[in-house]
Amino acid sequence: MANPPGHGLYEDSPALTTVFDGARATVRHLRKSKVVVVSGAEQGREVDVGKPRVTGGRSIINDLVLSDKAISGSHFEILARDDGYRLRDLDSTNGTFVGELRIREVWLKPGQEFRVGHTLLRFVPMQDIVEIPLSKRDTFESVTGASVKMREIFATLEKVAPSELTVLVTGETGTGKEMIARGIHQASTRKSKPFVVLDCGAIPKDLIESTLFGHENGSFTGAVAQHQGCFEQAHGGTIFLDEIGELDVNLQPKLLRVLENRELKRVGGDRVIKIDVRVVAATNRDLRMMVNNSTFREDLYFRLSVIHVEMPGLRERKEDIPALAEVFLREIGTRRNMSMTFASDALATLQTHSWPGNVRELKNVVERAASLTEGSVVTRQDLMFNRDNSSRMTPSAPSTGHHRGGAAVDVPAIAPGLDFKEAKQQIVDAFELAYLKQLLERHEGNITRSAQEAGLTRYHLRELLKRHGLTNVKE
Question: With a threshold of 0.85, does the pTM exceed it?
Answer without folding.
Answer: no
